[in-house]
């Protein structure tokens, strides 16, 4: 009997060590979508299912937070590549009227984006991305009156392979990048 208890304990230890839990701070189901990326290809929620991914909202003529957020996402992309972590990156434009695929590609190029696992998405109207962002990430998006600028949250969102946004991090704080890498190491 002791032999079986010991074996059961060993099996449970091995199983729990395989995929550590991370502390989450949200639980939102990402709404279904199919949008156009910087290469004029469709990217959908179904394409991302089965993968861990990190998302944010940006726009290319942003004068404040988007450039540092995109720089941080680029640094994060480099860090996970160095660690051998498999993850996708998705930046949703909140200015789809102006952010064409070509505009998004030029913006990504400016920050050294590797498009093999980073998609910059557009191809919808403002109301669609506003509702999508709120429902999927609890991330408010709004127009600034008499301006070509937009208000939006500055978080990076970690989405699990089932399509649930489970954790948000500050996208403007470079120190958060190591937290994201550590969380991804735990779950993979």
- Residue fraction in strands: 15-25%
Number of domains: 1
N-to-C order of helices and strands:
HEEEHEHEHEHEEEEH
Strand count, sense and barrel status of the largest sheet are:
6 strands, mixed
Q: Report the average pLDDT across residues.
A: 91
The quaternary state of the protein chains shown equals single chain
CATH superfamily: Glutaredoxin
> Rg, please?
18 Å
What is the CATH top level name? Alpha Beta
| Ends apart, CA distance between termini | 34 Å
CATH topology: the name is Glutaredoxin
Spans of 5+ residues with little confidence (pLDDT < 50)? 4-18
Question: Per the principal axes of the C-alpha atoms, what is the gross shape?
Answer: globular
The SS-based structural class is alpha+beta
Strand segment tally: 10
Task: Tell me roughly what share of residues is in helical segments.
Answer: 25-40%
Query: Judging by the overall fold, what is the CATH architecture?
Result: 3-Layer(aba) Sandwich
Counting H and I runs of at least 4 residues, what is the number of helices?
Answer: 6
Structure report:
The protein is an alpha+beta fold and 188 residues long. It has one domain (23-187): Glutaredoxin. It is built from 6 helices and 10 strands; from the N terminus they run H-E-E-E-H-E-H-E-H-E-H-E-E-E-E-H. A 6-stranded mixed beta sheet has the order 1-10-9-4-5-6, with helices on both faces. It has a two-stranded antiparallel ribbon with strand order 2-3. The model is unreliable at 4-18 (pLDDT under 50).
């Amino acid at each position: 009997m002791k032999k079986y208890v010991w074996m059961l304990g060993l099996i449970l230890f091995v199983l729990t060590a395989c995929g550590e839990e991370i502390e989450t701070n949200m639980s939102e189901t990402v709404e279904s979508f199919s949008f156009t990326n910087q290469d004029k290809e469709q990217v959908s929620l179904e394409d991302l299912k089965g993968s861990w991914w990190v998302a944010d909202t940006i726009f290319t003529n942003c004068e404040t937070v988007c450039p540092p957020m995109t720089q941080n996402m680029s640094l994060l992309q480099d860090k996970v590549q160095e660690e051998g972590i498999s993850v996708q990156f998705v930046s949703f434009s909140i200015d789809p009227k102006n952010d064409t695929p070509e505009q998004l590609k030029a913006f990504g190029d400016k920050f050294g984006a590797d498009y093999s696992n980073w998609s910059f998405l557009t191809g919808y109207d403002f109301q669609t991305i506003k509702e999508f962002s709120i429902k999927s990430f609890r991330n408010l998006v709004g127009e600034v009156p008499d301006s070509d600028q937009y208000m939006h949250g500055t978080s990076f969102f970690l989405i699990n392979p089932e399509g649930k946004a489970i954790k948000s991090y500050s996208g403007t704080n470079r120190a958060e990048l190591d937290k994201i890498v550590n969380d991804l190491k735990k779950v993979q």
